[in-house]
Amino acid sequence: NIGKKMSCQQFIANLDGLNDGKDFAKDLLKTLYNSIKNEKLEWAIDEDELRKSLSELVDDKFGASAKKVTRIVDSSNPFLDIPQALNAVTYKHGVLTRKTHADMDGKRTPRGRRGWKKFYAVLKGTILYLQKDEYKPDKDLSEVDLKNAIRVHHALATKASDYSKKSNVLKLKTADWRVFLFQAPSKEEMLSWILRINLVAAIFSAPAFPAAICSMKKFCRPLLPSSMTKLCQEEQLRSHENKMKQIADELAEHKLHPAEKSLKSKEAEEYRLKEHYLIFEKSRYETYINLLCMKIKVGTDDLERIETSFFKVEADDLALRKTHSSPSLSQGHMSISCKAEKDILEQNT
């Protein structure tokens, strides 16, 4: 149903410099283009077969005793319909009041769906379940509970400092750029939710896939897999650090060629969108790196101890900033939550 299809020349141009910095042979690319054009690409197996095979995979992985397996369907894409074992580790649970602020790709949620709703939240594995009833470990989840569930892989939780209508509100931005606001019962609970969501995302988020290539040279975000990483924590930390360096370099390069502020063309909008993405990703990876470093330093999986150590460092940094007036010192010891808040506020101005 595409009106203007990609030409062979556009296909070749899209792959410039991607063969370890060099170009692929044009004859090879022409052959590949014609092959795809003459015989379209299709799913290797149909959707029903894929779902069945994924279910069998989970049964093999978790054994016959792990009978409680359910799915969270993000869309019609079968590769996003990944089974979730309900016997995954529970990292936190408690009452949260949710407001949906933005839908997929940051599109503002329609007014009729933006109201505050109270849930019993359970962070289990890389899923934040939002249940109407109180949490019970052995209780099956209803269809409504599953529909409200949120994946937290590659997500970032921050204090919603730009929202003043309610207190103790955190902002959660997901991998597909949906935005949720959550009000916690207290400041301590809000900070605990922020830390644990970000720590789970930092530990288990698998490395990103390259972004899709577009014939229109349009900016595309990388693909963020919802499967768990296979890296150990030290390797995961190095992966985050490498990604952080790549993002920082890309942001610096991006800012060297600013778009004209008066310009309202598609190019200027693409420039602003990419800058928004790079700033957010920089704050996200900074947060992940700080939390993983803290966890490795503490040397435990006990979340209570990690939380205590983290907030002690935060308190020490705050005291240090109050007793010294050096600008460089303040910048160097800015907390991860402050960094994220600052970056997100910059994006909104």
* Alpha-beta content class: alpha+beta
Tell me, what is the CATH class of the domain at 68-204? Mainly Beta
CATH superfamily of the domain at 68-204: Pleckstrin-homology domain (PH domain)/Phosphotyrosine-binding domain (PTB)
CA radius of gyration is 22 Å
What is the name of the CATH architecture of the domain at 68-204? Roll
Number of strands: 11
Helix and strand run: HHHEEEEEHEEEEHEEHHHHH
Mean pLDDT: 78
Low-confidence stretches: 57-83, 323-349
Major beta sheet summary: 7 strands, antiparallel
Oligomer designation: single chain
Helix content: 40-55%
Tell me the distance between the termini.
38 Å
**Percent of residues in beta strands:** 15-25%
Strand order of the largest sheet: 6-5-4-3-9-8-7
CATH topology of the domain at 68-204: PH-domain like
What key attributes describe this structure?
349 residues; alpha+beta; PH-domain like; seven-stranded antiparallel β-sheet; two-stranded antiparallel sheet; 10 helices; 11 strands
What does this 3D model show about the protein?
This protein is an alpha+beta fold and 349 residues long. Among the domains are: 8-38, no CATH class; 68-204, PH-domain like (Roll), CATH 2.30.29.30; 233-304. The protein is 45% helix and 15% strand. The protein contains ten helices and eleven strands. It is globular and about 60 Å long. Residues 89-202 form the PH domain. This is PH and SEC7 domain-containing protein 2. It is found in: Cell projection, Ruffle membrane. Keywords: Cell membrane, Coiled coil, Membrane.
